[in-house]
Amino acid sequence: MAIDFELTQEQKELQELARRFARDVMAPRAAKADKLGEFPEDVYRKAWELGLMNLNVPTEFGGSGLGELDQCIITEELAYACGGMTTSISANCLALQPINLAATKEQKERLLKPFCASYNLASFALTEPSGGSDVASMKTTLKREGDEYVINGEKVFITNAPHASIYTLFATVDAARRHKGVTAIVVPRNTPGITVGKDEDKLGHRASATSSITFENARVPVANRLGEEGDGFKIAMNTLDSTRTPIGALATGIARAALDHAAKYSLQRSSFGKPIGEHQAIALKLADMAQKVTAARLLVWYSAWLADQGKPVPMESSIAKCFASDSAMEVANEAIQVFGGYGYMREYPVEKLLRDAKLTQIYEGSNEIQRLVIAKELLKRFA
Amino acid sequence: MDVLVCVKQVPDPETKLRVAPSGKALDTDGVKFTINNTYDEAMVEEALRMKEEFGFTSVRALSVGPARAEEALRATLAMGADEAVLVETPPGMELDPLFTARLLAAAAADIPHDLVLVGRHAQDDEAGAVGSALGEYLGLPSYSFVTELTPVAASHQLKMRRYLEGGEEVFSGPFPAVLSILKGAKDPRTPTLPNILKARKKPLKKIPVKDLEAKVSVLKGGFQPTSAVTSFTLPPPRSGAKMLEFQTPEEAATKLLKVLKEEAKVL
Q: Would you tell me which CATH number, out of the four given (3.40.50.10490, 3.40.50.620, 3.40.50.150, 2.30.30.100), belongs to the domain B2-217?
């Protein structure tokens, strides 16, 4: 028996913990936080208290020390209650992964340990106004002066930026060197010269905060640099390789919520003398939705399982992220259709799922980029 | 001081229950079991609170049940208990509250205990009988529905508090003792993720139920259930609501008023 889809008892317990937290703490706050664009910091603090926040940080530095599959199992449960809150909770994993991957032991003791020991948020600062996926063209500069770097430039769409205490920043020591100039550095939020922009008014993920960050002659010790000058591109790519699959899990959680809402509603609502779920027009939709949710989860688990075996997953993680997020969009869209006019009303929960699903097709590598990666990996096999 | 907490795994309250083909029990096939009885969680919380407040030596957990009951014990370890013992019953073995109490008593004899705690009752069969019976079999005093307790080690006395309808009773009695615990002021703690992972590494001993046969056989009632279930049925479906057909709101109000006055006679 080489394939086993049964979760371990431990994984079932982690899933149950996340499910309870999602149901009891996140879900009751989701609709209001979405409507008002609130940042429910007490929810995030509670997530940290339960150990649901810094999942990918090794336990010796105060994290939960989980592998990718475990992270995916937890992320799907959280996103079932609220995609936006899950984005803010998992943003720490994204921001801290460059430190996990590239920091020295001394840096981890200094930067990671105190950070994880209490409730703190971190932001991953890569995207610039002129582009996200074209990392080699970044314009934010790092100029070395003695033991310090002087930072100038602007980052945009940075999750948790207004509330984070540290930023893992990607900037270039020499724009002419393209991706070979990109360098990663940990920047404390209270560094003079940093201005955080307004909290962006977004279509979805409204319980999460997103802002720009402007650096004007901000000075950071060289000791905070991760790896060598020019290592940043590789660090960023390796980080995104490991957080891509969990984004697929997040999308799967949204899709599963949409399917469950639609299925329940289809049994409550009657037309022409029977529940609409018994009309083939709706039943066939529900069947298609169920296929997408199941397939998305399996792709996510497969990619995460491979990664946990130490295997490279450039193609599998892109397939998981791309398929799960496209599915989330399609399933949420169909859920609204099942709800009919009610689905279009903000009083009902499904229109939020569509708005939340949309972002999963865009962030952490747009689905267009994911498709290019998949095609490139595929064609390598035939070249 | 050593505390022994007895926990029971119960079906998830949200699970759909069916009667087994025998007509004498719940069908456990395909039923999802929760990690723990809600009343036991409150009891475990009280045990852990005492351990923290009074510096007790240990909190150990004990359960009687099939292999899956290990999950309830792991959850208790994740809350903060130090060790666990499962008296493992083979599939299909019948238990009743008194037989369960005899098995617990036999297992508890080998586990250090100054206080033995049980939840007020299990949320599945709601018998609430195990605590008192366990006291009897262990030859210890038992106190029921205690909300808060404070041991006074020097005099071997317990100060106990119990909330009654419209009042509160404070009383005392000697220990070692068996106590059934009601939920107090504090909500049971949620196990944190690191504690769930740590619980995997805490000692959990499994004792096959057969190993306790000799010890249990000498207790009154012996190695078998004392009572037998003759039939088990689910509550009858509630009688249907009356639907009023109407065309206009006025007609609906008139019809409703008539029903409330003449049939329900509430007006």
A: 3.40.50.620
